[in-house]
Amino acid sequence: MLSLPCQRRPELFFETYGRALDLAKELCADCPIRRECLSAALERGEPHGVWSGQILIDGAIVAVKRGPGRPRRAA
Predict the structure, then answer these.
(1) What's the rounded Cα separation, in Å, for the pair 23 and 5?
(2) Looking at the predicted structure, is the pLDDT value of residue 39 above 90?
(3) Residue 36: its pLDDT value, please?
(4) For residue 59, is it left (φ>0), alpha (ψ between -120 and 50) or beta?
(5) Contact between 38 and 60 (Cβ < 8 Å)
(6) In this structure, are residues 8 and 31 in contact, taking their beta carbons and an 8 Å threshold?
(7) How far apart are alpha carbons 52 and 37 in whole angstroms?
(8) Are 54 and 38 in contact (CB under 8 A)?
(9) DSSP one-letter string for 17-49
(10) pLDDT digits over 45-63, tens only?
C-alpha cells in the first residue's frame, strides 16, 4: 500500500490559510498519484482543501486563499 502525505497528516490539507497550506502543497510535489488526485477532486467538485498541490475552493482551483477578515474595499 502507498504511503501518501495526505494520509500521514490529513489536517494540513484542510487548513484555513497560512503556512500550513504552503506545506501541504509542498508535500504533494512528490506524490505518486498527484494527477489522479486533482482529476478526481475536480470531478467531485471538492468544496475546499489542497488537492495535488492545488488549492480548491468551491470545486475550482485558486491561486491564493485569503485568510479570514474583512473583504478588500472596492477601488
Answers:
(1) 11
(2) yes
(3) 96
(4) left
(5) no
(6) no
(7) 6
(8) yes
(9) SSHHHHHHHHHHTT-TTHHHHHHHHHHHT--EE
(10) 999 999 999 999 999 999 8
